[in-house]
Amino acid sequence: MHATEHLFHFRGKPKGAIVPKITAGEIEDTVIFFRKYFRRLSVRNLSLCCPHCKEAATPSTFSTGRYRLADEELFCDRCGETSLVGYWRLEGVQLGQQSYAEPLTPARA
Ligand SMILES: [Zn+2]
Fold it and tell me: For residue range 5-14, what is the model confidence (pLDDT) as tens digits?
């Protein structure tokens, strides 16, 4: 008789107590979480420009919106309009604006 069999002989048959049960839904939720997480990381350095006023996002707007996904909304400090972040990024690519992710170089006198 094996040592563990001897143990279970007294305690009864283990009922899924040793290996925690993970449901398919929990695995799916975890996969979705990490997929969104890496998507947020991959877009964080793209520049953001308001599709309404065509101005680059202010540093505070950029820090609010940089980790948002394309289908999430972002409010513009300059014109007061709210647009989807996907349009902000598209505008940023089209206008070629500098991203606020890099530290702004101080103006030289
Ligand atoms: Zn705007």
Answer: 555 555 556 5
Distances (CA, A) of 82 to 11, 60, 66, 70: 62, 15, 15, 13
CA of 53 to the centre of ligand 1 (A): 4
Per-residue buried b or exposed e for 39-72, using 16+ beta carbons within 10 Å of the residue's own CB: eeeebeeebbbbbbeebbbeeebbebbbebeeee
Q: What is the pLDDT of residues 56-77, one digit of tens each?
A: 999 999 999 999 999 999 999 9
85 touches 69 (CB < 8 A): yes
Cα–Cα distance between 46 and 67 in angstroms, integer?
10
Question: Ligand 1 centre and the CA of 38: distance in Å?
Answer: 28
